[in-house]
Amino acid sequence: MNYWLMKSEPETFGIEHLQRAPRHTHCWDGVRNYQARNYMRDSMRIGDQAFFYHSNCNPPGIVGIIEICSESYPDYTAFDPDSKYYDPKSSPDKSRWFMRDVKFIKKFSNIISIAELRANKELHQMVILKPGNRLSITPITDKEWQMVLKML
DNA sequence: GCCAACGTTGGC
DNA sequence: GCCAACGTTGGC
Predict the structure, then answer these.
(1) Model-level pTM?
(2) Measured over all CA atoms, what is the biggest interatomic distance in chain A, rounded to whole angstroms?
(3) Which of chain A's residues 65-94 bind strand C, using a 7 Å CB cutoff?
(4) Which strand B bases fall within 7 angstroms of a protein CB?
(5) CATH second-level architecture of A3-150?
């Protein structure tokens, strides 16, 4: 089992959206970066868990835990000209982008802010804390996973 | 296949 | 809203 960190803007799709979704489950659409796509398409496994990270908000940080609950399948928002995720170079025949379904597991009573993550010396290797990193999906080591949970 | 221009991300 | 750091695009 692998661990991940998945970013989303709370105004677009926050952890409350997932919590309220039918069966606590929703697709994770809109990934338009090849590395993040490869993680999602090739590296994730059903049952992997991920931190849900709220970005572009105040404060940004980890707000809960979700679980990967489907295999990867074509991200159909790329086929829809009206979608903000539309990509004319992706087609149902030959999809460029993929997604998976994720399930709400838990919302933390307090956010673990990026400032707190940065202040934790044990987490200096976390991909998301490295300068200039913008990947929306990043792997988390077992050690990092445990350490973050200790910060609750 | 180089690389300049452009668009996006996201913390601050 | 600023802007640095990236990724992508497309002319050549």
Answers:
(1) 0.94
(2) 47
(3) 89
(4) 8-12
(5) Roll (3.10)
